Amino acid sequence: MASASSFDLENMPELRVIEWQHLNLSMFYPTALFSTWSVRTMLYPLAVVRSRLQLQKQHTVYRSTWHAFRSIAKHEGFRGLYKGFWVTFPQIGTSLIYTTVYERLRTFLQTDMGYSSVPFISSMAGGAAAMCSQVIFVPTDIIAQHMMIYNYADAFVGSNKSASVVHYMRSDGLLHKRTLGLRVIRAVYKVDGLYGFYRGFIASSFVYVPSCLVFWPVYYWVQDGMKRFRKEDAVLLVDQGVAAGLGGIASSIATNPFEMFRIRIQVHRTTYRDTLALMMNEEGLHVFTKGLWPRIVSNSIYSCIVMIGYELVKRACVLPEFKDAVKW
């Protein structure tokens, strides 16, 4: 590793984007994973609210986002808002996969392929990283979704075919012998086999890949726009936080129908064609707005805090020879 003395620090360009080669990876990985998971833990209740809103038929259970939150808190307590949370713990691996693929592909596209557009490079790398992370995300998310609605499954699932997993659990004789999560895992496997854990994989990819294709360009475009209207010595980290929040809002709006499509395929267990037909018949234009507000709130806050945390972690883990060049 080169020492700081071997670099011309005065002529080194300002580091506004910290790349893979600038990082001490032994520090970066554990710190980044802890930061990301802390935010996910804080915002998990919004995922529960969003899932239930999108699974219900019209407004049969909850009238609004706030009504859903109050009802869950009142009738199920704190545990209801975190139902299925422990099952999502393996998703910490998705953060590891996403970060590695994203950063390495960014470096490849920039240095080996010669692309110079940061929004383009980031959106391509983010889309590929999101696709790879679905391997862990989809099965854990399916299990968590079934746990979220188990106590009120009849209101959220619908037909007998859709309720096969729930029906199996109600007759499994394991109510007080195993945890709900383990019972869901067993039921999904018994009803659908291994395929059950990857039901809706393509639909899930249609949510998270386009989400990245929207988020990253917006993230960098907003920063560029703010740079034009602010002093050069403005705090870059503030701009990054604002840009991430707006990117989260934009990606939520753009992909909300796909999110509703995904979760209904995975929980209702219907085909892609039947799910689309039912959604259009039952919800109409509400497919664009149902569950949107908790998604906007969750994704904007999550994106803002995670990106600020991510950038702080990168600054803290930058190699010594680059520290003086980092733009704060």
UniProtKB/TrEMBL annotation:
State the compartments where it is located.
Membrane
Q: Which GO terms describe its molecular function?
A: branched-chain amino acid transmembrane transporter activity
Question: By its UniProt entry, which InterPro entries does this protein fall under?
Answer: MCP_dom_sf, MCP_transmembrane, SLC25A44
Keyword DNA repair in record: no
Q: Does the entry feature the keyword Transport, yes or no?
A: yes
| GO cellular-component term (any) | membrane
| Membrane topology recorded in Swiss-Prot or TrEMBL | Multi-pass membrane protein
* Keyword line: Membrane, Transmembrane, Transmembrane helix, Transport
Give me the segments passing through the membrane.
27-49, 118-138, 200-222
Might you name a Gene Ontology BP term for this protein? branched-chain amino acid catabolic process
Which spans of this chain does UniProt mark as Solcar repeats?
Answer: 23-108, 117-225, 235-316
Q: Which family does it belong to?
A: Belongs to the mitochondrial carrier (TC 2.A.29) family.
State what protein this is by name. Solute carrier family 25 member 44
Q: Which organism is it from?
A: Plectus sambesii
